[in-house]
Write a structure and sequence with these properties.
Blueprint: H1 14-20, E1 28-32, H2 37-45, E2 49-54, H3 57-72, H4 75-82, H5 89-99, H6 105-113, H7 115-120, H8 127-143, H9 145-150, H10 157-168, H11 171-180, H12 183-189, H13 205-217, H14 225-232, H15 247-256, E3 260-264, H16 267-273, E4 281-285, H17 293-306, E5 311-317, E6 332-334, H18 336-345, E7 352-358
Parallel strand pairs: 1-2, 1-4, 2-3, 4-5
Antiparallel strand pairs: 5-7, 6-7
Helix pairs in contact: 1-2, 2-15, 3-4, 4-5, 8-11, 10-13, 11-13, 16-17
């Protein structure tokens, strides 16, 4: 059965976006909605104004569901309902009834037509999460669940690094990566083909594996929800849940929910329709991987035209190297060194990062 959306969890660590964009109170951010974690987590961290856009209505339904959940439910119940944590079917359906009144009619219709997503946990049925769940079952069978659980017992990064090199870095694990992320398998099953247009026929498994050690050992595993969910299809420790599911964060988001606007639109369309100076911060996710080089230059030029300077842009990429367009070198500064430093602390470090400053 075809997945109803590509991503159940946004693959960007919003703590990195917070640093890269130097988020301040009352900033105005235009961002990609994706699965909702970036706008929700940033709103949980600071009182800012956010317009979150996506060309997929289904991704927006999921993002809105996350917001509705934390407005209707206590944080741990919201986490269980959404699928970050386990719960039984009856409990999940009862929680769904509490969330329903906050939805608009088109949202209700969508979820009624996709009740399997509600029953399993909405984040668990996305294309990427389904692909990773199958991969995880193979990986855990080979590596052993007990061994993987040990990774989360360490209190230091050094301990995790030593454990990874001694017990996890095996020829067999590398072989799994080479198979799972071969373009012929990864396309359609793990990632929509449009997102791989710049990868060519290269096998990106080597790149992913090189970042995998970093993923497992550069942040404290017990505090990294990406790491826990990747291995076990759930968050093991409540303290590691996304920022927007923290008790104090929920209070902030409920208070500021009118500051967050969801919009069905491309990034370019949202910019075109905005007044000059509306936004001073821009989160691009990795939309450059889905664009031609010409389209990406056009996007940066439009941001320069519309931004309220001094402004900041943050982009990620896997496949497309963001070269500095000649016509923008005098007005947009690409801070690649900062991007390299940010990768070192990122909880999902599979992207290269490009912070940018827009001059006045």
């Amino acid at each position: 059965m075809e997945p109803i959306y590509n991503f159940g969890i946004s693959q960007e660590d919003a703590l990195t976006e917070f640093k890269a964009l130097d988020i301040k109170k009352d900033d105005r951010l235009l961002c990609v909605a994706s699965a909702g974690e970036v706008p929700l987590n940033l709103l949980a961290l600071e009182d800012i104004f956010i317009e979150a856009v996506d060309i997929s209505p289904h991704q927006l339904f999921l993002s809105k569901m996350k917001l509705h959940s934390i407005c209707a439910l206590e944080p741990l119940k919201a986490a269980a309902f959404l699928g970050y944590m386990d719960t039984d079917l009856e409990t999940r359906m009862n929680l769904f009834q509490k969330v329903l009144p906050l939805m608009e009619e088109d949202e209700r219709q969508f979820w009624w037509q996709n009740m399997d997503a509600i029953e399993k946990g909405p984040i668990r049925v996305a294309r990427f999460e389904r692909f990773m769940a199958k991969l995880n079952s193979i990986g855990l069978l080979i590596l052993g669940k007990k061994k993987m659980h040990r990774l989360f017992e360490f209190e230091t990064i050094e301990g995790q690094q030593e454990f990874f090199d001694q017990y996890l870095s095996t020829f067999l694990l590398k072989s799994i990566f080479k198979i799972a992320f071969h373009p012929r398998i990864y396309k359609k099953r793990g990632m929509a083909s449009d997102g791989l247009k710049h990868s060519g026929e290269r096998n990106i498994a080597d790149f992913f594996y090189s970042r995998f050690r970093h993923f497992c050992s550069s942040t404290i595993a017990r505090k990294n929800y990406y790491l826990q969910y990747t291995f076990f299809n759930k968050v093991l420790y409540p303290d590691a849940l996304p920022e927007y599911l923290g008790e104090n964060a929920v209070k902030r988001i409920r208070r500021n929910r009118e500051r967050l606007v969801w919009r069905l639109s491309s990034y370019n369309e949202a910019l075109e329709k905005s007044r000059k100076g509306t936004f001073n911060k821009f989160h691009l996710s990795n939309i450059g991987d889905w664009m031609s080089r010409e389209e990406y230059v056009e996007l940066l030029s439009l941001i320069k035209k519309k931004a309220k300077p001094p402004a900041k842009i943050f982009a990620r990429y896997i496949h497309l190297n963001h070269e500095i367009p000649e016509e923008l070198k005098n007005c947009i500064d690409f801070n690649f060194k900062l991007g390299e430093r940010l990768v070192e602390e990122d909880r999902y470090p599979f992207y290269s990062m490009v912070p940018m400053d827009v001059d006045g």
